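Researcher: Structure prediction, please.
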Amino acid sequence: MRHLRVQVWSDIACPWCYVGKRRLEAAIGRMAEASEVEVVWRAFELDPAAPRVQPPGKSYAERLARKYGTSIAQADAMIERMTSIAASDGLTFRFDRVRPGNTFDAHRLLHLAYERSLQGALKERLLRAYMTEGEPIGEPTALARLAAEAGLDPEEVGRVLASDAYAEEVRADEEEARRLGIRAVPFFVFADASGISGAQPVEVLHLALAKAMAEAPQRAPAGGSVCGPEGCG
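Model: Predicted structure follows.
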């Protein structure tokens, strides 16, 4: 039986990463070999310098406008578009609740969750907590509670958060992203051979999955061609 590994570089503080996750799940669901697809979530920090919790005062629209050099009205239009797209994929985005923060510790816990076969559950819990529920996903107490809700052992989570466990693994993910030329997320890599950037439509992801699965016995070794929005290289 063929086995296909899909690696996804993404961040918790990333609305399009949540949309991309939902679309990838839908694409996998269309495959007869769905049970043979393994999804591995890799770390990518959109803002490594962010504090654990952003100080209050600025709305999401104000932060978005400053980041992209647009007006508040244009930022509001971007938010409305993202919210509408998310709804079409079955997601509820509440930008009025979003509490930005540093995601490094969240990525460390995702590495722990991978070892405990709970990575998908934790990834979903963290994204929903950030995009829908307004949880401060940079705060250790919030992370510990959310990880426990995803099924992780609270004592083990506490030990990880109190140490630098899995820090090297997160940095290795980020270094690999740089090596692959990943500058925006989500970024999907199929069978260590080909990649797609952005929250692509379900049809595009399904075609990529089907192609990678069909070629699995002859898959290219790690470090093969990577195809992004500007082409392949």
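Model: Residues 4-54+99-232 form a domain with the Glutaredoxin fold (CATH 3.40.30.10).
Researcher: Thanks, that helps.
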